[in-house]
């Protein structure tokens, strides 16, 4: 499979290249040159199959001949063996035709594991083949850092550094990053905000000598490998509920638009999806875009659903590309307007295309807490606040005869305080995912100063390939 940029001015890439580069050199995002299709019978045959088998059927057309089937199957098996549920992403019934798709049975209790676990293995495989290595640097406001550090801890060709704003992530999230215990994984607490961390990452990519010395890379949500991995659970869920004979709708708590865009990809591949419903918190730019056609950046409001506290929804550009009939010039115009005037208005034709598949709804802070309480009261189920946002929006968009699947993106224990405030209940993590005590924390504490962080990375990144040792009693370094 070849990959093309949504802005049309970057080189076409192979799957392996797209996997390693992330962002295209013209500022665009890579998408497959054509959508692979699964036939009615092929989709029918996925019903009831183990997750790893469905994952192979869904992912292999995107990979093509570039990775041997035996290797791809092995990596998929290993990635999903880290999940603690035999179905990997089980469905839970919440009402006569309402379902939750639990995506949080992976090692860090949030849905980011689904993509990170396979992405890490794919990247390490490609680097090993080439005898190359990389350094991944990222900024996290919570879930991504833990999922990435956990997934990359066994990768011999990759060192991973994640910065987080000191004191501004939950204890549980911090401990997920600081108790990994592998010498190639580093958590860095920065004095500053998430935006400060993010802008240091950007500056490091701009600092050419540093970037090339460490071979800097990223694993942000625009990486095609992450999107591809998320397409799989739309197939397992829909076929379990009767697809392809029966069509199914999905509601997705949305931030960077990666997760719900994967649903759109599943639809392009032939899965009969009736509606894709975007659920947002008070950072409702996407809901407003769908209602009015006006895409207007505001400022980010912090909420109890921090993983959706976003204004710039990166993966939305991939949908714009399709809505524009794959015309990169139209995408370039919209992105230029967004950069210059912080807004664009969608041409009617594009808006109609988007509304053809998508609906949207936004939920306030008060409503989110009320919804967590309501779900507990009526279904005896503790939902994390991100999931509750989506459940509320799903209720507003449910139609008889079409199963509605709501994606549940985090275990309630990851957002224990909000869940307690709403219900009075303690959401306890499962023993295997409980980082709250025991292991020693290893964290570097640095000022929000790029030069200091680069110095730390240069000192600790293994600039040649080497095997990964795990740390047993390293102790706290700050
Ligand atoms: C990342 C995340 C989301 C948002 O997913 P996107 O792919 O960015 O839309 C929602 N909920 C949780 C718990 C997350 O960690």
UniProtKB/TrEMBL annotation:
GO terms for molecular function: pyridoxal phosphate binding; threonine synthase activity. Residues 99-324 form the Tryptophan synthase beta chain-like PALP domain. Keywords: Amino-acid biosynthesis, Lyase, Pyridoxal phosphate, Threonine biosynthesis. Gene3D superfamilies: 3.40.50.1100, Threonine synthase, N-terminal domain. The modification N6-(pyridoxal phosphate)lysine is found at residue 112. Pathway: Amino-acid biosynthesis; L-threonine biosynthesis; L-threonine from L-aspartate: step 5/5. Its EC number is 4.2.3.1. GO terms for biological process: threonine biosynthetic process. InterPro entries: Ser/Thr_deHydtase_PyrdxlP-BS (IPR000634), Thr_synth_N (IPR029144), Thr_synth_N_sf (IPR037158), Thr_synthase-like (IPR004450), Threonine_Synthase (IPR051166), TrpB-like_PALP (IPR001926), TrpB-like_PALP_sf (IPR036052). It catalyses: O-phospho-L-homoserine + H2O = L-threonine + phosphate. Its cofactor is pyridoxal 5'-phosphate. Residues 2-80 form the Threonine synthase N-terminal domain. Belongs to the threonine synthase family. PANTHER family: THREONINE SYNTHASE FAMILY MEMBER, THREONINE SYNTHASE-LIKE 2. This is Threonine synthase.
